[in-house]
Each structure stands twice: as C-alpha cells, then as structure tokens.
Amino acid sequence: MFEHAQTSVIPVAGLGTRLLPLTRGIPKELLPLGRLPVLQHVVDEMSEVGVTSQVLVTSQRKTAIRQYVESAEESHGNAFQFVDQSHQKGLGHAVLCAREMVANKPFFVALGDAVIKRDAEQESLCERMRRLCVAENADAAIAFHQVPLSRVSRYGVAKPQPGFKAGDTFFLLSDLIEKPPQELAPSRYAIAARYLCKPDLFSYLQKTTPGSGGEIQLTDALQAWLKDGAKILGVPLTASEKRFDIGNFESYYAAALEYALADQEFGPALAEQFGVKN
Ligand code: UTP
User: Fold this and answer.
1) Entry pTM
2) From the DSSP assignment, how many helices (H) and strands (E) are in the chain?
3) Mean pLDDT value across residues 190-196
4) Which ligand 1 atom is the nearest neighbour of the CA of 27?
5) How far is the C-alpha of 246 from the C-alpha of 18, rounded, in Å?
6) What is the separation, in whole angstroms, between the first and last Cα of the chain?
7) In-domain check, residue 269
C-alpha cells in the first residue's frame, strides 16, 4: 500500500501568532529560507519522494499562499488542490479537512512551517519512512528528532517500545504524549513535522475531541489509533538531517542563517563577514 503513497497533506492555515507582527502581512509558510519560501522547500521535498498530488489546507486569511502556489505550479509539474480550514481548530482538524481529497490512499503529512535539511546524497527522510512502512507492514510512520529535556514540553513526544537503542533506524511506538512536562516525558524524541499514514487515521481524527490548547491534536488521534493496536514506527532523523521549525523567531533565525550560509554564491563571503565556520 505505501509503495503507492503519492499524496501529501500540507497544513498551512495556522494563525502564526508566535511570529507576530511579521505574520500580519506574510504567512509564515512564505518566509524566505535561502532563495525559496519555506513552503517551496516542503513541496519540493514531497515531489522528490514521488508525491504528485499535494493537498494544501489553507485559510481565507492567507490568500498569498494560493497565489504563490498557482503562479509557481506550471514550473514544478505538481497537481495542487486547496481545501479551506474555516476555523483554526488545530493540526488534527487541518488534516481532517483534507479527508475527501486524500480518499482511501496512504498519504504523507508535512507541516508547512517546517523543513528537513539533509545531505543530498542520502536517502531522504520520507523515502526512509516509506521503505520502513513497507518492510515492517506498518500502519504509519512518524519522524522524530532528539531535543534537550528542557524543550520536550513544546512537542509531541515518543515512548518507544523497549529494546530500542540509539542508532537503530526505527523504533516501534508504544505511546505518544502531547507537550509533556519535563518530568513526565517518556523520551527526548520529539515529533519532527513529517508523518506517513494509512487513511484509517481519518476515522480517529473524526473522533478526537479538543485536547491541549483547546485544539484537535493530531497526536491525540495517533495515540487513540495506537491504543487500538496500530503498528506505528518512529523514524529518528540521522546525524546529517536537521529539522527547522519556522514557527518561532528563535528557530526561524537559525533556519534563515543556515540557508543563507549554504548559498553557493554568497554563503562563503557571509560566513567570513560574520566569522562563522562554514
Ligand atoms: P502550528 O501550531 O505551529 O501553527 O502548526 P500556528 O497555529 O500557526 O502557530 P501559532 O501558535 O499561532 O504561532 C504547524 C502547522 O500546521 C498548520 C500551520 O499553518 C503550520 O504550518 N496549522 C496549524 C493549520 O493548518 N491549522 C491549524 O488549525 C493549526
């Protein structure tokens, strides 16, 4: 089933309140990272794993996103569909809005405000997730990155099944906890903005009631699915992969710097100007 995952759901309807006042004028998904907006990095990452149908969950407040995608569409050969999330009820709700367009096929979820930077020679994270889902006959895979214990309370955090060792390419997930306080965190593995799921996820999203922050959380639906016996893989990022979240200034600045320094034309001079090792 997963061999044929050719659809991505990219939620881009969030309010972007942590980036105010910037996001009053520009959706965070269109902020520049190097020479491309964040969203273009995400769309390209999906195209590279053979995704041909990209479903963008948008909001009427963020018309610039649709304008950008429609003007760039021809040159990238992708088929885009748009679905409106009229009220920002959370990430889980945003994904549920794409249900009809995804229909009964496996699909990726890629957060529109997060990029995964990698070594171009390596198999990409999403390709690895797909390969592991096929090999392990799993129901879903979720990407994870390790964060300091002091930051676990910002993320959905994994509880891996016993036996997992650092360096393993995946673990079986036994539970997922949304934004746990430090002392209750089951690990330091935080969800890293990429998911691959069988469409069964939608029935769990449908049943999910508002959780943390009054929002319908994707993590809660995945947790309910796990409780019903779903086989969900945790796929850690490798040492050469970095996840950048654009949702707050601290990590947006880090991402913008990283991409500017990687610019072939201007990166080396910038590094010299600011005394950064490149
Ligand atoms: P975030 O929770 O980081 O985005 O969602 P947000 O709600 O915009 O953040 P703040 O707290 O107001 O700063 C991650 C991704 O999911 C989308 C966002 O656009 C972002 O790309 N999202 C989030 C939706 O599409 N709908 C939602 O209801 C929430």
Assistant:
1) 0.95
2) 10, 13
3) 97
4) 19
5) 10
6) 42
7) no
